[in-house]
Design a protein that fits this description.
- The chain contains seven helices and 17 strands.
- The chain is of the alpha+beta class.
- The chain folds into two domains: about 55 residues, mini-chromosome maintenance (MCM) complex, chain A, domain 1, CATH 3.30.1640; about 240 residues, Beta Barrel (Thrombin, subunit H), CATH 2.40.10.120.
- The strands form three sheets. The protein has a six-stranded antiparallel barrel with strand order 12-13-14-17-16-15.
- The chain is globular, with a radius of gyration of 21 Å.
- It starts with a helix and ends with a helix.
- It is an enzyme of class 3 (hydrolase).
Length: about 375
């Protein structure tokens, strides 16, 4: 756990009520050099809820520390509306936050040799680039970290979820995909493209090496997973892959640098990949791709109030929706798959497909697990 004294010092600055500051605002730059406003922390729900979390990771504490710009003030990328009225104190009103952040830090895992994540010379490489359009079939060797999860509890066996390869031994997926499955009943299909062929060949007779059907040694579901909260899990492969990987199987990068940990990825162009349903069939035979744009958790919460379920969102969620006015989103069967952003030429996993309204039928956003909120848990559990 991160140093509690450091957290206490941060909270004293941010949440201390001895001095009530005015709501004067001014321009500022976040640690990622993005424009923001220096505002009272109550006007920045994401950072307010982070400061109020029971447990903070080292990266989250660093983020809060770097965003402080005055007494009870933070540099906020997307503050709530600011007025010149004096702030209302907790003594006169009980605030009900739109977004709260449950703790995501977990106990130390079982002893073992910790595994490293690959560097950008290996991870996130895609020779095809952004060649295709949303909702189209990917190229044969595009997004080589996408994993198809086959369930042998089905008759016949069927692909029902996706995942992302992050190193030679581990796949990230959604907890709801594997919570009630035995490790013997699930297979990770690595280097997959066409679910009905092996090896895969495109229309020009270019072929990949054979798909690897990897057995699972261990399923690690986030210990605080509850329905739509902390919906993330790790699959440990029985056998490690070749350390140099393969032409059709490579890992995606994870956002472990300080700059990426502090990036909220709001209004970011992203891509989602999987074998989920299409307009004409419940499951796609081929690996498909769609383009979306992320929105803030607060925007997302407001938009999803139109739905019957009215889900409650947290700071460890990230949302994305169509940027074109056409209904596009991840679909059933895409669960657990990657939401990816291209940063400086490398693809990074920033979200894990979670839940949302029926895909292809609405412009409402889908909801994903925010990967930066779980980096401590992920790295602690990468045990060989």
């Amino acid at each position: 756990m991160a140093n509690p004294l450091l957290k206490l010092a941060i909270l004293c600055v941010l949440l201390g009520l001895n001095t009530i500051s005015s709501q004067e605002t001014g321009p500022c730059l976040t640690a990622g050099a993005k424009p923001g406003r220096c505002v009272d922390i109550d006007l920045c729900p994401f950072l307010r809820d982070l400061a109020q979390a029971a447990v903070l990771s080292k990266q989250e504490q660093l983020l809060l520390k770097k965003r402080i710009c005055g007494e009870r003030k933070v540099c906020c990328e997307e503050p709530s509306s600011v007025t010149s009225e004096p702030p209302i104190t907790p003594a006169s009103v009980t605030r009900k936050p739109i977004v709260t952040s449950p703790p995501t830090r977990t106990p130390t895992p079982t002893p073992g040799r910790k595994m490293a994540l690959p560097g950008t010379s290996i991870c996130g490489l895609d020779t095809v680039g952004e060649k295709i359009f949303a909702g189209e079939r990917t190229e044969l060797d595009q997004f080589p970290w996408a994993v198809a999860l086959e369930y042998r509890t089905e008759d016949p066996a069927a692909v029902k979820c996706g995942g992302s390869l992050i190193n030679t031994r581990y796949v990230i997926t959604a907890a709801h995909c594997v919570k009630h499955v035995q490790k013997e009943d699930i297979i990770a299909r690595l280097g997959e493209w066409n679910l009905e062929a092996n090896p895969d060949c495109d229309d020009y007779n270019n072929c990949n090496p054979e798909v690897i059907y990897a057995e699972i040694a261990e399923i690690k579901v986030h210990p605080q997973y509850r329905q739509r909260q902390n919906d993330i899990a790790l699959l440990k492969l029985k056998k490690s892959l070749n350390k140099d990987y393969y032409v059709h199987i490579r890992p995606i990068c994870l956002p472990e640098s300080a700059d990426l940990m502090q990036n909220l990825f709001i209004h970011q162009n992203v891509s989602v990949v999987g074998w989920g349903g299409t307009e004409i069939e419940p499951r796609s035979q081929f690996k498909m791709y769609t383009s979306l744009v992320t929105i803030s958790v607060n925007e997302c919460q407001a938009e999803l109030q139109q739905t019957l379920t009215k889900p409650k969102l947290y700071a460890n969620h990230i949302c994305a929706k169509s940027a074109t006015g056409f209904a596009r989103d991840a679909c059933g069967g895409d669960s657990g798959g990657p939401m990816m952003a291209s940063v400086h030429g490398s693809w990074y996993l920033i979200g894990v497909v979670g839940f949302g309204p029926p895909c292809g039928k609405t412009l409402l956003p889908g909801v994903y697990a925010r990967v930066t909120s779980y980096m401590d848990w992920i790295e602690d559990n990468l045990v060989d």
